[in-house]
Amino acid sequence: MAYIDDPTTQKANLSFIKASMRTPLLSRDREFELARRWREGGDTAALHELVRAYARLVIATAGRFRSYGLPIGDLVQEGSVGLMQAAARFEPERDVRFSTYAAWWIRSAMQDYVLRNWSIVRTGTTAAQKSLFFNLRRLRARIDEMSGTPLSEAGRRKIAIALKVDVAEVESMDMRLGAADQSLNAPLGTGEEDWQDFLADGRPSPEDVVIGLHDGATRSRWLSEALGELNPRERRIINDRRLREVGATLEELGRALGVSKERVRQLEHRAMLKLRQSMCRRTDRPADLLVEAG
Q1: Is the pTM above the cut of 0.85?
Q2: φ, ψ dihedrals at 198, nearest 5°
């Protein structure tokens, strides 16, 4: 659905557009002069003249993004940010017209804005997804696939080849663009239940939490007892190497203990073997000592 501005906003947008279209374009020499003055001397007046002259480029680009249903004023603002970024990075010595250079920055700024605001769910996070988001409808029309219906297998393959993406990504984006956002608080049918009432709770059950706390305490007690079986030097190596957020290096421990780093490595290996054997003696099922990653 297209966004409709209120009358005051529409009037302000129209006034800005008219003023921008009346601003004369710059010659190559003039825009290079302004770019140099801004880049080398920080001349804000030169920057303003350069940006005002190409505000019409922002407006033209915003018109191509109106089909995404976002406020034209916001698109122009985002494009103006891109125009300012282009002015800050433009290098006149490369002998490229500023309008050519700025067009990429303007389009990129608007694309990022559309992706952030088209849906409450982030739509395009990878290069392939962004390419699909902005080109899928156009390619659909080119291969005579009607909008609103699922793409055929042949259509998905053609689009995947054209954009150099996986067929699965084409199918996923086609489904995403064909579905509107829905609130989880929306009622389900005529009953009192909402969609969120049927979401599975992925958190552990109270029983699992209690069992996990009990098992964790038991493992901690066993580990403390196993550490007590090591000699002082082995215990220090394990503590400094394994039980700290930022473990000491072999070289650091070697200097502290007056041995080589290879000797520290050997002592660490022997201490770990002792700990493993000690822990395994305390249970009939050693596999229970392993904790699955959450």
Answers
A1: no
A2: -105, 10
% residues pLDDT > 90 (the chain): 20
Measured between alpha carbons, how far is 66 from 138 in angstroms, rounded to an integer?
Answer: 15
State how far the alpha carbon of 102 is from the alpha carbons of 23, 58, 75, 134, 233, in Å: 17, 9, 15, 20, 65
The domain limits of the chain are: 7-117, 127-177, 206-289
Domain 7-117: give its CATH architecture: Up-down Bundle (1.20)
Give the CB-side neighbour count of residue 243, counting CA atoms within 13 A: 13
* Predicted pLDDT of residue 293: 42
The answer, yes or no, to whether residue 106 has pLDDT greater than 90, is yes
237 burial class (0-12, 13-18, 19+ CB within 10 angstroms)? buried
Q: How far apart are CA 89 and CA 197, in angstroms?
A: 52
Distances (CA, A) of 76 to 64, 109, 287: 11, 10, 61
Query: Is 206-289 CATH 3.40.50.2000?
Result: no
Q: Which DSSP state fits 24?
A: P
Q: Is the dihedral of CA 230, 234, 240, 245 positive or negative?
A: negative
- Give Cα 25 to chain centroid, integer Å: 37
